[in-house]
Amino acid sequence: MLRPRIIPCLLVKNGGLVKTVNFGHPKYVGDPINAVKIFNEKEVDELIVVDIDASVQNREPDYVMIKNLATECRMPLCYGGGVKSVDQVERIISLGVEKVAMSSAAVSNPVLISMAAELVGSQSIVVVMDVKKRGRGYEIWTHNASKPTGLAPVDFAKQVEALGAGEVVMNSVDHDGGMKGYDLELVSEVREAIRLPMTVLGGAGSLKDIAKLIHTFGIIGAAAGSLFVFKGVYRAVLINYPSRAEKDALINKGP
């Protein structure tokens, strides 16, 4: 089994770093490049950066920003936002990004997954599923959780695995920014359905939440936003990340 990764997820809006709650109410928390510099110093396992405006505004990825981020990053970088063609995927990879994430385009044009994986390798293609609770089940939403798709995450996860995706990011809209723990029911359903490496995002409020996720499900990636940009009950902005010793203890000993 691969060593689990603990991954900060940074959201970019209008060129600035923001944090959301349930995919709404974006709060400005700083400059993305400055955050990357701090995470470099903290020896972060990997970094996810998502431009939350790109798909909603139907525009191209910001290649200048992506290049600046990739140039600064000393850890593997996964970029998502506005990706809807293989040409875009190839260009983003050429800028020094290790992984390209797609969400709405993977739903509307699933063959893009296969085409992109063939071009740059499955290991570089990530499919993000933004999921909301619906009745007794779950549904995938796109465009910042503004458009329902009617797709069940388990069914779609199986489809993207068959199409050649290298990784799935399972993001709980309902738990986003709440810092009250991951949606473990959702994780369980999808983890049992696929063999792909899986990263979980949405709801981490403490390192214990991350430890529980890793040790319960064998999750490869435990991602978080608020946990790594806020500190304390008043959510003061402070970029943070566990030390190497804390991370080793978390992974080896559990919650």
Task: Please describe what this structure looks like.
The structure is a single chain. The protein has helices spanning 32-41, 63-72, 86-94, 104-108, 111-120, 153-163, 184-193, 207-217, 226-229, 244-253; strands at 5-13, 16-21, 24-30, 47-51, 77-80, 99-102, 125-134, 137-142, 147-148, 167-172, 198-201, 221-224, 230-231, 236-237. It is α/β, with parallel strands linked by helices and 255 residues long. The chain contains ten helices and 14 strands. An eight-stranded parallel β-barrel has the order 1-4-5-6-7-10-11-12, surrounded by six helices. Strands 13-14 form a two-stranded antiparallel sheet. The longest helix is centred in the middle third of the chain and has 11 residues, at 153-163. The protein has a single domain, classed as Aldolase class I (TIM Barrel, Alpha-Beta Barrel), CATH 3.20.20.
